[in-house]
Design brief:
About 55% of the residues lie in helices and about 15% in strands. A four-stranded mixed sheet has the order 2-1-3-4. It starts with 6 loop residues before the first strand and ends with a helix.
């Protein structure tokens, strides 16, 4: 990445839920000229990120200042870079709320979305 303030997001464009959410963020970032890159894990991005495709599809990943973040910390990093969503990062980042959000994401949302992804892959 060129600037220290750049952020990169790795997401699954084949997942309708992921694609819709990330396309929303990408459109917002693009209209405001925010230095955020969005990489589809279904191309060559996984190798560049050092992740295998299944691992990458299990959750949202963000590369921020050379650090790989995943799950709720990745969402927080992304939301903090977008003025419209900074309030959400502040709320979700609060003690207690962050732990609850992490539990829900790690044990319910991310596994359910990944299971749907695996079913789509099996169907071809």
């Amino acid at each position: 990445m060129e600037q220290k303030n750049d952020l990169a997001v790795l997401y699954n464009a084949e997942c309708p839920i992921c694609r819709r959410e990330i396309e929303h963020y990408a459109g917002y970032a693009g209209r405001r000229g925010l230095p955020i890159r969005f990489d589809d894990l279904n191309g060559s991005a996984c190798a560049e990120w050092g992740l295998d495709p299944d691992e990458a599809a299990r959750r949202l990943h963000v590369l921020q200042d050379g650090r790989l973040l995943s799950g709720i910390p990745a969402f927080l990093a992304l939301w903090r870079r977008m003025p419209r969503y900074r309030w959400l990062a502040r709320v979700v980042g609060l003690p207690g709320i962050m732990q609850a959000a992490t539990l829900v994401y790690d044990h319910a949302l991310a596994p359910a979305i990944h299971a749907m992804h695996r079913r789509r892959q099996r169907r071809g």
